[in-house]
Amino acid sequence: MKSALAKSEEILRFTGLEKRRDVLAENLKLADRKRLEIARAMATCPEILLLDEVFAGLNETEIDEAIRLVKGIQQKFGTTIFIIEHVLKAIMKTCGRVIVINFGEKIAEGTPEEVTRNPGVIEAYLGNAPGI
Length: 132
Description:
Blueprint: H1 4-15, H2 30-42, E1 48-52, H3 60-77, E2 80-84, H4 88-94, E3 98-102, E4 105-110, H5 112-117, H6 119-126
Helix pairs in contact: 1-2
């Protein structure tokens, strides 16, 4: 078993926070605070990781970096990740299975490709635009 210090250093490297290790959380930019929250969760060696709006408020570059981090967690640690998210790009690139909820009711379930073609999903999230 790794020491707590060795484990924390590994997680800081993995999440890209190693160079910011001495910065107070309140002084980190939003993307790094989100990485810190993921790092804290990963320190417990979870089998399942719940991410709630982890991509919200990030710019395109930060979203791409966060997508790589999430995929890296899946690949390196084999962690099952449950994501609640509105950033469709992130869902499409990180999830193998998607459940779409509208006003508390499940309206679709399947692969990202399947649910984005679902008429109920299109209507609920894109409106009833002509030609869709």
